[in-house]
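User: Can you write out an input/output pair for a complex, sequences first and structure second?

Assistant: Here is one pair. Inputs:
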Amino acid sequence: MKKVYLDNTSTTAILPEVRDAMLPFLGEYFGNPSCIHEWGDAPREALEVAREQAAKLIGGASEEIVFTGSGTESNNFAIKGLAMANQKKGKHIVVSAIEHFSVLNSCKTLEKMGFKYTTVPVDKFGTVNSEDVRKAIREDTILVSIMHANNEVGTIQPIKEIGKITKEKGIILHTDAVATAGTIPVDVKDLGVDALSLAANMFYGPKGVGALWLKRGVRILPLLDGGVQEGGRRAGTENVAGIVGLGKAAEIALSQMPARIAKVSVLRDRLLNNLPEKVSHVIITGDSVKRLPGHASFCVEFIEGESMLMLLNSQGVAVTSGSACTSRALLASHVLLAMGLPHEIAQSSLLFGLSIQNTLEDVDYVLEVMPPIVERLRQMSPLYAKFLKQKKGG
Amino acid sequence: MPVYSDVVMEHFMHPRNVGEIENPDGIGEEGNPVCGDMMTFYIKVNDNRLEDVKFKTFGCGAAIAVSSMVSEMAKGKTIEEVLKITPQSVADMLQGLPKNKFHCSNLGAQALHKAIEDYQSKQKAGGKS
């Protein structure tokens, strides 16, 4: 059976060049980079090469990069670490309603410690209005965190506009760029941010490694105390192979970015244009223009996401959904609900993440297998039966 | 898809008794779109037995498998026998359900019981003898 992996928003595949760069650090270069003897040399030098590569990807300086264990850790570190280090100035944070749980739940934890936070809404396309951010800022606001692009609906946020506001008000701006760094051009100076999170597995690097870029001079409290690794900002022996992989993946991403964007955009547009034609009552979620190049997301009315995902899997296709049943917490996507979609529509979400390994044949295969899957589930659906009756009656 | 048992997968891939019954003797609905699972059961009763059972379900793999299993367990049984079907007995027949799905997707027995209540209230109201 044909196998088509379209779940690249969960993770991309590691490039062979990236894996090859990592392997020596799982072999002969096993040394601890903190050691001053010869075994520490190659791993230590490799960390600094990777730091340079990561910094270049986002237009920062290498000493501003702190390697972490994931995008989630980077976000936790940014929210908690920046809030704690700046709490003398105030205890209020501004975030958007569609942030990743690593940001939202970090705010909830801080709330228990006496901080307050305001959640800025989004419009029906999943876009944050920078004026809403301005309005949410108070006298005691110390931190604004808005994601660069949303992972579920692919909408790219006006970070540059928000950056002007935070700069004017002298407030720290963090952006969760896990969905964008290594995928579309990201320049910390152009965006006007003070902190930025990224994760290697979103751009063909390994899982379990991320980074937080922190503008020189911005104070942060470490999450992990211990030794002086990462300049004392993130203690613990480094995941050398992972970091090397992140660096290599960043270097390749930067050099191939225009070609990659051109390639996946074609695949995305084929899906976005053709799926609603092949299947009735399909809603495209997110923005049509300010959208990640490899991101196609839909709601397929009257049916539930997990059952669609399972039938697609039975046809060799891997996708993901924001339905309650697919989430371990059994809650419908907070992103789709924040965009104003009713629960029964949010339950029918389907998310395709296209990669540079995908082909037009892959997309056409999906377009071929989707209609019978949807038809089969709709024939089973009481919501569809009600819809048909109402249509007939009225 | 390792989270579901083979029996759940088999019923999900090949659900039994999907559909509606025209002029049913009872209809029972359970669930809501917030939790993500909704089931409607239709029954035809003859001589105190469920002569026919059909369902329509909006929901995850577990919800569809539960509906299919409940319809099989109930078909041809007496009302008293059907009222003994519980979420636990359905889950047992399915060789277990994932812990977090036990409550939200396992609404088949309740939906079927509601269909029987519907039938019984129609009977009392002096409907079909």
